[in-house]
Specification:
globular; Alpha-Beta Plaits; single chain; four-stranded mixed sheet; 22% strand; binds iron/sulfur cluster; 19% helix; 417 residues; alpha+beta
């Protein structure tokens, strides 16, 4: 019997197989897709840490796919969107009330309850084929071509604000969802969400490999291991989050994929959660600020209904309609804020990859005005502010400035070749 739970990302209560139970802190992350260079360093950092053994060859807990054509497994998002559309034709829509948006369509949990002529299930999903799991980076760097004419570029090409010829990299890991589809579907209750940090794990002793979780996760972030006949998924590098990594001296440290990121697109942290599941106000936590105050980072496919805890600053050159379907109706506001950032946003964006440790609070010290200009018709002023980040113990762990340091190499170089 399903319960009613509140999902803030869709602005309403929804049906879910379990009653509300929320962690004290929630693992969350914020990826800036404008900066990803598709180098796959994150992918390899994860693979070389957790999935290098026999039976894990096709297992990529972190993957970076080139949108719109790439996907791991292939076409995962198109397939889930299609299943939802078939279950609720023409009605997968958002409604606006003042400043707020409500999703009026059906989530993967609601659509599963009302499958006409079929047995009700806990979660609407599908099991990808072996073929679909085979290529983690299929269509890498493949751009959208001229409409109706493959292998040609649109003459308008890369004119702003929306590029007709384009692609972008979508970096993905498990979202450690508030209402996980994987957990909801497991008939053995082998999947659980940790009270201390909201990380979603599979109990390897309880799992019997029914793969209900693989079918139910709309992001396809649970993978089956044929050598052990059980399922595995991203564990959010929990020893690092717990502060048990030898490098951290007891303090939480960001995951391997985050700290290895060359493009500095990733900021990972912990947000405090109230007993009712709402986010405790924490104005100067960088993630709280980016997601709840500046609203510049958005969840991936919020309409699926799992309340994912991965957030994205969308790529600003991509056609808005495509992005709105992917990141929800907050898209236009988020892009507007990012295109012409205010003083605070610009300072907080400097925190990306400046330290391995998890920053739970920041402070801005005002600096000198550097210049004024107009961006997209709006006035913009750059100040060289200093931003300081603190860890869970209140200790300063990073200090950096808005004006990035510029190094000029000396004329003389040593060359050992
Ligand atoms: S992304 Fe998928 S695997 Fe991860 S918690 Fe959500 S439903 Fe489960
Ligand atoms: S390491 Fe960073 S820049 Fe490179 S592919 Fe991964 S997310 Fe993108």
């Amino acid at each position: 019997m399903n319960q009613q739970v509140y999902n803030w990302q869709i602005g309403r209560k929804m049906s879910y197989p379990h009653a509300e139970a929320h962690p004290e802190w929630q693992f969350a992350f914020c990826f800036n897709l404008n900066r990803c260079i598709g180098c796959q360093t994150c992918t390899m950092a994860c693979k070389s840490t957790w999935t290098f053994s026999k039976g894990q060859e096709q297992m990529w807990w972190n993957n970076v796919e080139t949108k719109p054509y790439g996907g791991y497994p292939q076409f995962w998002d198109v397939k889930v969107l299609q299943l939802l559309e078939e279950a609720n034709p023409g009605a997968q829509k958002w409604a606006r009330k003042g400043e707020e948006f409500t999703f009026e369509g059906k989530t993967i949990f609601e659509a599963a309850e009302k499958r006409v002529g079929l047995e009700p299930e806990r979660v609407l999903g599908y099991l990808p084929t072996d073929e679909e799991w085979r290529f983690p980076n299929i269509y890498e760097d493949t751009a959208v071509s001229r409409k109706g004419k493959p292998m040609t570029f649109d003459p308008e090409g890369t004119k702003l604000p929306e590029h007709k010829t384009r692609f972008f990299y979508l970096a993905r890991i498990c979202n450690h969802c508030t209402y996980p589809g994987c957990l909801a579907a497991c008939p053995r209750n082998a999947i659980y969400k940790r009270h201390e940090d909201g990380i979603v794990l599979i109990d390897q002793e309880r799992c019997r490999g029914y793969r209900k979780c693989v079918a139910a996760c709309p992001y396809k972030k649970v993978m089956y291991r044929p050598t052990t006949h059980i399922s595995e998924k991203c564990i959010a590098c929990y020893p690092r989050i717990e502060g048990n990594d030898p490098a951290t001296k007891g303090m939480p440290i960001q995951t391997r994929c985050m700290t290895a990121c060359i493009g500095q697109i990733r900021l990972q942290g912990l947000v405090r959660i109230n007993k009712d599941g709402s986010w405790a106000e924490d104005r100067y936590n960088p993630l709280y600020y980016l997601i709840r105050v500046a609203k510049v980072a958005l969840p991936l496919y919020p309409q699926f209904g799992t309340e994912p805890n991965g957030y994205y600053i969308p790529p600003r050159w991509v056609p808005r309609g495509y992005l709105r379907q992917m990141f929800g109706p907050g898209l236009d506001e988020a892009l507007e804020k990012y295109r012409v950032p205010d003083r605070e946003l610009l300072a907080v964006l400097q925190l990306y990859q400046r330290t391995k440790e998890i920053i739970v609070r920041y402070e801005i010290k005002e600096g000198k005005k550097v210049y004024e200009t107009v961006i997209h018709g709006k006035p913009f002023t750059l100040y060289n502010d200093t931003i300081v980040g603190y860890n869970k113990e209140g200790k300063e762990i990073v200090r950096t400035q808005v004006e990035e340091p510029f190094y000029v190499r000396p004329d003389k170089h040593q060359n050992s070749i």
